[in-house]
Design brief:
By secondary structure, this protein is of the alpha/beta class. The protein has a domain of 201 residues: Rossmann fold (3-Layer(aba) Sandwich). 47% of the residues lie in helices and 17% in strands. α7 links the parallel β7 and β8. Bound molecules: pyridoxal-5'-phosphate (PLP).
Length: 433
């Protein structure tokens, strides 16, 4: 597999280099130089394959010789240890539940795959690296869980004290092993600044091998394509003639993975890109103008992104041609009032509880299916378990919801964090000790 920078098609690197660099030095994003198409025979029998088998075929086709088949099979078996079931909601609408992993959100897929790919390349070289992550909540817990007990990798997570939810804090601070949580007296921007300064610090980089677990790393994108294929397989088993996906989007990595799947031959009629009030991409699809702006805070806060980082990848996939983009993607945006109303309505009609992000996707999908009179099977991606947003969800639906056993266990564990000032030099001293 070769990857190029979206800022310079001639600057190509290997998968290994792209994974450890994260970002090309020219500030573009890595994209595969060639997206191979899966054979028709694969799609003929896809409904008979397991999630792991599907993930293996897709990754083998995309990654090629960079990782031998037996090693790749092992990595896939370690990543896919939980299901992504498709649940019927109503009419021709299904929910693809991506929250059955350790952090109860879809980011587990990306984080687990990245951790195992990194660890695989490191073991071959007998190297050790330090992953630094600044988090405002959700990314941190998926990354921490993903890298837990990975040989050769130490993880340091910086989170803003008192600015993450109870559940999030417990998920970050109760793992131990190779994961250290630093509770920073400051806000998320302080955490991010300290991590950025560390990457620029000469002494730190001489003494430690630092790496990031950034959301734009190509190894987080690749595994997110697997479940689009698996969803299609489940729909095909139910007799679906064609499918429409709706992805609740912030940085658009998840949607981008679906688009790559389509390039690999997955028969998708349409992708609906659903956002909250941060509607930069729906606006672009409507007007042709991409106008990033400061994000606004919403109920679906993991999607509060004002400058979606994967937009460059979408542009690269469609040669920057809006007409081509619009063939595959339709944009939809919803404010918090609409989201609250839909979450309550769906709960009252069906008994199904959706997290705020999932609800935005529900709205996008049901509106699109209505407007287009599509007979397709609609699949909305459910990106997080509702219990991760328990206070908001309970208030909206007016009922207490159950906390999954595994999450309840985490909540009972004792928090272990190291207090840290928001001064870079304190952080640096800690890393060097
Ligand atoms: C990160 C996240 C999203 C947005 O995903 P992108 O790939 O950034 O578009 C949606 N929902 C939840 C729950 C998330 O954590």
């Amino acid at each position: 597999m070769k990857l190029y920078s979206t800022n310079n098609p001639n600057a190509t690197v290997s998968l290994k280099e792209a994974v450890f660099k994260g970002l090309p030095p020219d500030n573009g994003l890595y994209m595969p130089t060639h997206i191979p198409v899966l054979p028709e025979s694969f799609f003929h029998k896809i409904e008979t394959l397991s999630f792991r088998d599907i993930a293996f075929e897709v990754s083998k086709t995309l990654i090629g010789d960079d990782i031998p088949e037996t090693d790749l099979r092992q990595i896939i078996n370690d990543v896919i240890t939980f299901d992504a079931p498709m649940v019927h909601l109503k009419d021709n609408i299904y929910v693809l539940e991506l929250f059955h992993g350790p952090s109860f959100a879809f980011k587990d897929f990306g984080a687990r795959f990245m951790a195992r790919i990194m660890s695989y390349f490191l073991q071959k070289e007998n190297k050790e690296i330090n992953i630094l992550v600044a988090t405002s909540g959700d990314t941190g817990s998926a990354v921490a869980q993903g890298f837990l007990n990975m040989p050769g990798i130490k993880v340091t997570i910086l989170y803003p004290s008192k600015k993450v939810s109870d559940i999030q804090e417990k998920q970050l601070t109760t793992l131990g092993q190779n994961v250290t949580a630093l509770e920073v007296s400051g806000n998320f921007d302080d955490c991010q600044r300290m991590v950025k300064e560390a990457f620029l610090d000469k002494e730190l980089n001489e003494k430690l091998s630092l790496s990031s677990a950034n959301s734009i790393n190509i190894s987080r994108l690749i595994p997110q394509s697997f479940y689009y294929f698996y969803a299609y397989a489940q729909a095909k088993k139910l007799g679906a003639a064609s499918v429409v996906f709706c992805t609740p989007s912030g940085n658009f990595g998840n949607l981008c993975a679906g688009l790559i799947g389509k390039r690999m031959g997955l028969p998708v009629q349409k992708f609906v890109a659903a956002t909250n009030a941060n509607d930069i991409v729906p606006k672009y699809l409507e007007t042709g103008l991409f106008s990033p702006r400061a994000s606004v805070a919403t109920l679906s806060n993991a999607m509060d992104v004002g400058n979606p980082s994967n937009f460059a990848r979408i542009q690269a996939l469609y040669d920057g041609d809006l007409d081509k983009v619009k063939v595959d993607i339709v944009g939809k945006a919803y404010n918090d009032d609409a989201t609250r109303k839909a979450m309550k309505e769906v709960y009252e009609q069906t008994g199904y509880v959706m997290c705020p992000h999932t609800t935005v996707a529900y709205l996008g999908l049901s509106d699109y299916l209505k407007e287009s009179h599509s007979e397709a099977t609609g699949i909305l991606l459910s990106t997080a378990h509702p219990a991760k947003f328990i206070d908001e969800v309970q208030e909206i639906i007016g009922k207490n919801i159950e906390i999954p056993e595994k999450l309840a266990v985490v909540l009972k564990k004792e928090k272990k964090s190291i207090p840290m000032s928001n001064n870079f030099h304190d952080f640096k001293r800690f890393l060097l000790q």
